[in-house]
Specification:
Elements (H helix, E strand, L loop, with lengths): L1 E8 L4 E8 L3 E9 L3 E10 L2 E9 L2 H14 L9 E8 L10 E2 L2 H9 L8 H14 L5 E5 L9 H4 L5 H7 L8 H14 L8 E7 L3 E7 L2 E5 L21 H10 L3 H10 L2 H6 L5 H7 L4 H24 L5 E5 H6 L1 H9 L20 E2 L8 E4 L4 H13 L3
Helix pairs in contact: 1-3, 10-11, 11-13
The structure holds adenosine-5'-diphosphate.
Length: about 400
């Protein structure tokens, strides 16, 4: 039995889950927030309830120390030697990584080089890795990339129709995101179909505050909605998704916005929040659909775009066996799932309204007669990370 830590380090936060492998049991999980401040928050789940502490945590190494010391103090682990591997979620693996990797100097250099493409995320991940290297010397660190699963896309899919030199010189292309989640739910769905993995055609809809869709044929990603960055694709909690880029020039002339300001608006003030003017949270919008026209509209725009992607993936894969819904909205909003699936009636999709009331658990949500099956499958990125740590470090 091994204890593996799955880590997601942000610029001022560090989320962790401690898992027992290979039996895939979550031992505990928690988060350090507001790292860098005198009143940082440390939260850990103990026996199902959350315990929170406010204390100064000035950098990520201190955050890691706090977490590990607390695990010892609570006797969740008796000796730090019990933790035999750490897996880190990395947002951008670019063209370098088709799979997860054990951290060494070369891997760190490549993640560093990719900071340009993920300036908010990759630097924070590096800080997280270095903190664990310092506090747990000798314990292998493994990096698991959000982009790796999408590296199987063909060039006609990942290339933009832009000057070719932008690709050769600056590697401008589609990379996608949420790959760990898409892979996890696609493989679970494939196992629920009565055919070999190589013959399966699955569309996975990861609908959280950030949201993306992927087409997975024979277990490999053939297309996904996010692009160079997570801004491309369907509208999300605060992101616009696809727009005509000319809007930027037009609005800079009308309102005097700089390019940086416009990108903040597209990333943080658009999507649900921008259209509704109320919230980036789908629950707030769903609660107001009957009374607030803009809340209804914000949701409808997104549902339409999701259906558009699924339709185009139907053509790309020459059919679809199953559509999967996952992440916060996909796992909890029966309204979203029903509205999207009803737009696909022409493909023979029939929602089972009773089954679609399910929340947060695996469920088949289409009728027996439906030509395409649809599933709700809760995602589990931490488990995928822990599995990759085990796979890559076993026997080393
Ligand atoms: P992220 O990881 O991208 O921050 P999550 O996967 O946690 O996002 O999803 C957040 C979204 O899930 C929010 O829009 C939230 O409103 C939505 N959500 C969570 N629970 C429900 C629910 N019961 N009904 C509708 N939406 C929900």
């Amino acid at each position: 039995m091994r204890k593996i830590m799955a880590v997601n380090a942000g610029s001022s936060s560090l989320k962790f889950q401690l898992l027992e492998m290979p039996n895939e049991k979550v031992i505990t999980e928690g988060i350090v927030e507001r790292i860098g401040l005198k009143d940082a928050y440390y939260t850990i789940k103990v026996n199902g309830s959350k315990e929170k502490e406010v204390l100064p945590i000035l950098d990520h190494a201190e955050a890691v120390k706090k977490v590990l010391n607390d695990l010892i103090a609570r006797q969740i682990v008796k000796d730090l030697k019990e933790i035999s591997g750490v897996g880190h979620r990395i947002v951008q693996g670019g063209w370098y990584f088709q799979d997860s990797a054990i951290v060494d100097d070369d891997v760190l250099t490549k993640i560093e080089e990719l900071c340009d493409l993920a300036p908010l995320h990759n630097p924070a991940h590096l800080v997280g890795i270095r903190a664990f290297q310092k506090v747990l010397p000798g314990v292998p660190n493994v990096v698991v990339f959000d982009t790796a699963f999408h590296q199987t896309m063909k060039d006609d899919t990942y290339m933009y129709a832009l000057p070719y030199e932008w690709y050769t010189k600056y590697k401008i292309r589609k990379y996608g995101a949420h790959g760990t989640s898409h892979k996890y739910v696609a493989y679970l769905a494939a196992a629920m179909l009565d055919k070999p993995l190589e013959e399966t055609k699955i569309v996975t809809c990861h609908l959280g505050n950030g949201a993306s869709i992927a087409a997975v044929k024979g277990g490999k990603c053939v297309d996904t909605s996010m692009g160079l960055t997570p801004l491309e694709g369907i509208p999300m909690g605060t992101r616009s998704g696809n727009i005509d880029p000319t809007v930027l020039e037009y609005m800079s002339k009308k309102e005097g916005y700089s390019l940086e300001e416009l990108l903040v608006i597209l990333n943080r003030k658009s999507g649900y929040l921008g259209v509704s003017g109320v919230s980036n949270d789908s629950r707030d919008l769903e609660a107001r659909v009957d009374t607030d026209e803009r809340c209804r509209l914000a949701l409808e725009i997104q549902y339409k775009r999701i259906a558009d992607y699924i339709g185009s993936y139907y053509i790309l894969m020459e059919g679809i066996d199953a559509i999967v819904f996952t992440a916060g909205i996909g796992e909890n909003s029966s309204r979203c799932r029903e509205k999207v699936l009803n737009k696909l009636k022409v493909l023979g999709v029939e929602v089972d309204r009773e089954a679609n009331k399910a929340r947060g658990e695996v469920a088949e949500i289409t009728t027996k007669d439906s030509k395409i099956r649809a599933f709700l499958i809760p995602t589990n990125e931490e488990l995928m990370i822990a599995r990759d740590v085990v796979r890559l470090t076993e026997g080393k």
